Amino acid sequence: MDTAVTAKKKWWAGGYSPFNVSYGKLMMWYFLMSDAFTFGALLIAYGTIRFSSTSWPDPNSVFRSFPGMGETNMPLVFVSLMTFILIMSSVTMVLAVHAGHMRDRKAVAKWLTWTIVGGIAFLSCQAWEWTHLFHEGAWWGRNPFPNTDGTVASTNFTNFFFTITGFHGLHVTSGVILNIVILANVLKGTYEHRGHYEMVEKVGLYWHFVDLVWVFVFTCFYLL
Amino acid sequence: MSNEATLHSQQEVMHGAHDHHDHEHHHEDSFISKYVFSMDHKMIAKQFLITGIIWAIIGAFFSVLFRLQLGFPDATFPWLESILGHWAKGGRISPEAYYALVTMHGTILVFFVLTAGLSGTFSNLLIPLQIGARDMASPFMNCLSYWFFFLASLVMMTSLFVQTGPASGGWTMYPPLSALGDASIGSKIGVDLWLTSMALFVVSQLLGGLNYISTLLNMRTKGMAMTKMPLTIWSFFFTAVLGVLSFPVLLSGFILLLMDRHAGTSFYLSDIFIAGKALANEGGSAILYQHLFWFLGHPEVYIIILPAMGMVSEVLAVSSRKPIFGYLAMIGSLFAICILAFLVWAHHMFVTGLNPFLGAFFVLLTLLIAVPSAIKVFNWITTIWKGNIHFTPASLFSIGFVSTFISGGLTGIWLGNSSIDIHLHDTMFVIAHFHIVMGVSAFFGMFAGIYHWFPKLYGRFMNQTIGFIHFWVTMIGAYLIFWPMHYEGMAGMPRRYYDISGWSSFKQFGGLNEFISIVVILVFAVQLLFVFNFFYSIFKGRKMTTQNPWNATTLEWTTPIHAGHGNWPGEIPEVHRWAYDYSKDGRDFIPQTEPIGPNESAH
């Protein structure tokens, strides 16, 4: 990790990356900024509609089920588990990237596998939650949940919920696919041969970003 | 450790490209890899340019068609029926066809020509050549960027031929009209194809933009500090940043619109009646779409104009043999425009019921853009002031750009005031304003770029005489077309109307409209002359005999006349000075590659 700089290197004078990163990592950062604007726009749209509505369904009474627990009232327990799984998968990703710096192929493969498992577990949870809500009568254009003030809610509660969590789920799915591709390369020894595991770092950035977005999605739909 | 390893291996890749070039004659590229799925940034630039030219012809031809309707509302043109079929029964364009034509004219010109065709072409061509790189950071992504644009083009082209016609709710695609298939014939599958095409277009822009940014930040040759870059590169940089940050918001808006169309949602819909029947949609907001759209829509006009500004700066300095005036002020104002671009979008929405208190801030921020714009205009004028101007088609178009940018920009100050905008909104005044400041100006910048860098693209020159004819007719024609529209707009004549002869207050403009339409046809004909000149010169133009025909200082003119993939046959040259050492120390120009002499001071 010796990125230490010799005395007065002219970082911006050309012939060298000014941020001391490869173009690939730079691209990933700019892409994440771009993607942040996509999610930002969706969440702000959600906020706009929600705050212009007189009332809104209460997440505590909508998201209160847990697989196999029947009608027990467990508000937000399941989504907390989902969130915990996703955050743990970020932790394993950190360990994979760290192992990459150490050029420890086996450890990279191990932690990347756990990250993939975490991603798939999160997606499975989401699939269960969507199915459950669907059976309760919720879908795009259909909203069985009343507003907190007892009035009939517009469909925009479910419209935004399915669109934004769906869009996030799509990101998690593509993240899992990327992780699998990178894992295959790790196992093949591509990065060992290349001399560095930067690709793991790049998909790691993407993975952390997707987790970070979930924190906002979680806050906006389940907590507020 | 690993970081050093990565950066090192990246350099190896660059050297690899160079080695490959040395042995190029041993294994010639196949036709497919050289001309079709090329990864050479110069070829991709040509692909963007020629696709853009084809779209420009189509888009401009559409304007000729609807100008026929506006200029001659009572006349019939039987030939129209033979090309448009039932869209022009009896030789008169139907209202549906008219709306489709104006919508597609806007979409095509704004996105496919002046975004992809302009920055797609010149960012690709000039970024590696002017910063001293062998290619883009990722040639593969660059290739994908073009092919996503091509796919977007195919889908948009298809939409022109479906039975219910292309999207026709205006290029802004406002709901509820665009969200409800039953609302009009132009809201059916045409809108789905339009949205699909635009989504592909956003992907293309993203792939291109990420590449431009990382290339010009990371891959500048030794000595090419950011403040030694030509202004073209600075303008492409800010253009790419604008695109990368604003197109995703548009994409979000489109996702919601597509859902409203097909998933039964009500993001943009509330309290709507169609043909007396109430729809169930409730709780949405049509204004929300406008916010999302204009959050891209306004930066988009700078995505269009900044590359033109950059190229004009370069061409004006080269052709007046003087350093650009106020280099740092130019960068500063590009940066200021880039920031302000994100903070003014609601000035398109003053009449939507936007809170006037909020509107006041948008007025202020909008008028602030006049400051960097005026700085730039001042600097262009002072650059050519007392210069030894070489009048080439490129320099004339650059001067024309400054002229149209001033006259179109001044009316922007009118429209930026919310109180005046209430009167002028949706009138021909708006049409006049943005066509001059962004349509004509951006085209002038693009023409300047094409005439100036044509030798770099094809190793030949374009015909100058045809170039002069092209310039003068276009310049005079543009003013004759758009100047009168200001008066029409001030009198309240609305835009997008199919036929204004029914209003006694607008009838007086019948003759003026006829005049405008005739000029449109003339100007269109001259653009075809330009297209002829372009393609003829590719094959038969005067050959380039020296590497540096304009005696310019920048790096692209240090490459061989027909540079292969990798641009420089040997080492990439090192840069020692800024890009604007013209008429310095008794010398006409000093290339950027020449070290600063012992008795010389840097600029």
From TrEMBL, chain A:
Gene3D superfamilies: Cytochrome c oxidase, subunit III, four-helix bundle
Major site of localization recorded for this protein: membrane
GO molecular function: cytochrome-c oxidase activity
Lineage of producing organism: Bacteria, Pseudomonadati, Bacteroidota, Chitinophagia, Chitinophagales
Family (UniProt): Belongs to the cytochrome c oxidase subunit 3 family.
Oligomeric form and interacting partners: Heterooctamer of two A chains, two B chains, two C chains and two D chains.
Record-level GO BP terms: aerobic electron transport chain
PROSITE patterns tied to this protein: COX3 (PS50253)
Topology class, membrane: Multi-pass membrane protein
Organism: Chitinophaga niastensis
Keyword Cell membrane included in the entry's annotation: yes
Keyword Ribonucleoprotein in annotation: no
Name of this chain's protein: Cytochrome bo(3) ubiquinol oxidase subunit 3
Gene Ontology annotations for the cellular component aspect, listed alphabetically: plasma membrane
Compartment(s) where it occurs, according to its Swiss-Prot or TrEMBL record: Cell membrane
Domain Heme-copper oxidase subunit III family profile, first and last residues per copy: 1-224
Transmembrane intervals: 29-49, 76-99, 111-130, 160-184, 205-223
Entry keyword set: Cell membrane, Membrane, Transmembrane, Transmembrane helix
Function: Cytochrome bo(3) ubiquinol terminal oxidase is the component of the aerobic respiratory chain of E.coli that predominates when cells are grown at high aeration. Has proton pump activity across the membrane in addition to electron transfer, pumping 2 protons/electron.
Automatic annotation (TrEMBL), chain B:
Comp. bias (Polar residues): 1-12
Keywords: Electron transport, Heme, Iron, Membrane, Metal-binding, Respiratory chain, Transmembrane, Transmembrane helix, Transport
Region Disordered: start-end pairs: 1-23
GO terms under biological process: aerobic respiration; electron transport coupled proton transport; respiratory electron transport chain
Gene Ontology cellular component annotations, sorted alphabetically: membrane
SUPFAM superfamilies (UniProt xref): Cytochrome c oxidase subunit I-like
One Pfam family recorded for the sequence: COX1
InterPro entries cross-referenced by the UniProt entry: Cyt_c_oxase-like_su1_dom (IPR023616), Cyt_c_oxase-like_su1_sf (IPR036927), Cyt_C_Oxase_1 (IPR000883), Cyt_c_Oxase_su1_BS (IPR023615)
Location within or outside the cell: Membrane
Keyword match ATP-binding: no
Coiled-coil ranges from the UniProt annotation: none
Topology within the bilayer: Multi-pass membrane protein
Molecular function per GO: cytochrome-c oxidase activity; heme binding
Family annotation (Gene3D superfamilies): Cytochrome c oxidase-like, subunit I domain
Top-level taxon of origin: Bacteria
All residue ranges annotated as the Cytochrome oxidase subunit I profile domain in the record: 31-594
Main location: membrane
TM regions (residue ranges): 48-70, 97-122, 143-162, 193-213, 233-259, 301-318, 325-345, 357-375, 396-416, 428-454, 466-485, 515-536
Protein name: Cytochrome c oxidase subunit 1
Source organism (scientific name): Chitinophaga niastensis
